[in-house]
Specification:
Number of domains: 2
Order of helices and strands: EHEEEHEHEHHEHEHEHEHEHEHEHEHHH
Strand order of the largest sheet: 3-4-2-1-5-6-7-8
CATH class of the largest domain: Alpha Beta
Largest sheet: 8 strands, mixed
Helix content: 25-40%
Strand content: 15-25%
Structural class: alpha/beta
Number of strands: 14
Oligomer: single chain
Length: 421
């Protein structure tokens, strides 16, 4: 098949959507498909274009056995506020117009586009219609809903109605619409997407690359940081607005000397980058039980995840079914328990607590979103119960192996592509 992938984020970005789109494109190319990608230069989660990609508006990357990648210009605000974020997304669509139009002459069989950004959906449909290709919209985040629910744009009025109307109109025009969780797929159906067009396409994890260390195996992060004997609580990933990271500073304070629940065994490790990182640095400054690390390279991901005794997955209220955190797959595959803040019935809560359409044992503890007291109580419980941590960790690994393996997810996706090509 000839597959044109159109998306804002792509490899070598290490987190979020770029990681998954990059892995998907490379996997398809390795399977013998002709793959082209129209994307932006890497900028996420730092919100700054990587230095080696600056100075040239358009560039083409060709490597044997890999997709052909076309980089297009875009505006990247250093502080992504509501209007600046909209301008950022819109600029990518504008910058990609000449490259996308040229791809129609290539005659792809499928035009695959990723939301965000939904601004690109009309252009993807135009190219698909021009060359008679099938079209596929993959929803990683419900961008329009998130913009209103997280307060980036006013939640009522003509702008709200117009945005929802355009979203439904263009989404229904795609041959296929997919999303990464059953709850997000239900939301798409509730927006009027016919069930015949909708398909589940979850994020995955390379269960061979991310795997639990054996008991007693040394960990380089613990050794480098002098934390061999500590109980480490790890947050790793994007540090943005939807993560609810403001809960982490008071949690660390509670377990510090002089806090409400002082415990010298406990250490917090916060690793990543994003718009909220400077504020988090200020909140935990001079706190001896907190270590901040930059985003780590992919070849150290398994070592980082295995440094944790407990993974932390905070989220703001209302965000858990708008987005499905990509970091969750690695947490599960590492075989460590998870403490997640999520409302009951959301996809995050179902995966971590063991409910939903796929019956499985709990992989961690779920507390209400933005409930600092409940988060503290859950943390204290797991810190004091190593047997429970081990039980939950084994269940997490088992869930990842059974349901999130990279090969099985992408093979099923390939079959879906072939069915519409």
């Amino acid at each position: 098949m000839k597959i044109l992938i159109y998306g804002l984020n792509y490899a070598p970005e290490l987190t979020g959507i770029g990681k998954y789109t990059g892995e998907m494109a490379s996997w398809l190319a390795a399977r013998g498909h002709e793959v082209r990608v129209v994307t932006a230069p890497p900028y996420y989660p730092a919100w700054s274009i990587r230095e080696d990609y600056r100075g040239k508006l358009y560039r083409t990357e060709r490597h044997p056995g890999e997709p052909v990648v076309y980089r297009v210009p875009l505006y990247v605000p250093s502080i992504p506020t509501g209007l600046k974020r909209i301008a950022h997304l819109f600029s990518f669509m504008l910058g990609s117009v000449p490259v996308m139009v040229r791809q129609a002459w290539w005659q792809p069989d499928i035009v695959f586009t990723v939301e965000p950004t939904f601004f690109g959906a009309p252009l993807a449909l135009l190219v698909a219609r021009a060359c008679g290709a099938a079209s596929w919209l993959h929803i990683q985040d419900f961008e329009v809903d998130a913009a209103f629910d997280l307060g980036l744009l006013p939640a009522e009025g003509p702008i709200h109605a117009l945005a929802l109307g355009m979203e439904e109109f263009f989404t229904r025009a795609f041959t296929r619409v997919s999303s990464i969780s059953t709850k997000m797929l239900e939301r798409a159906l509730n927006k009027g997407i016919p069930s015949t067009q909708a398909v589940l396409f979850p994020n995955w994890v390379d269960i061979d690359t991310v795997h639990p260390h054996e008991d007693g195996q040394p960990n380089s992060f613990r050794e480098e940081l002098g934390l061999q004997d500590k109980i480490i609580l790890l947050y790793s990933g994007n540090m943005g607005a939807k993560q609810g990271l403001e809960l982490l500073a008071p949690l660390a304070e509670a377990f510090s000397e002089g806090g409400s629940h002082p415990d010298s065994r406990v250490h917090f490790l916060f690793c990543g980058d994003g718009a909220f990182r400077p504020q988090l640095e200020t909140l935990v400054a001079h706190r001896s039980n907190v270590t901040l690390l930059p985003l780590q390279p992919l070849n150290r991901l398994n070592e980082l995840l295995n440094a944790a005794d407990i993974h932390l997955l905070p989220q703001r209220a209302g965000a858990a079914d708008l987005v499905m955190p990509s970091k969750l797959t690695g947490m599960l595959s590492s075989g460590r328990p998870i403490i997640a803040t999520a409302d009951p019935g959301t996809q995050v809560a179902q995966v971590v607590a063991g409910g939903g359409l796929i019956p499985h044992a709990p992989c961690g503890v779920v507390v209400p979103a933005e409930d600092a007291e409940a988060l503290h109580a859950a943390t204290a419980r797991l810190v004091d119960d190593s047997a429970l941590r081990a039980t939950l960790g084994r269940a997490a690994r088992r869930y990842a192996v059974q349901h999130l393996g990279k090969q099985q997810v992408l093979e099923q996706f390939e079959q879906s592509l072939q069915s519409i090509a």
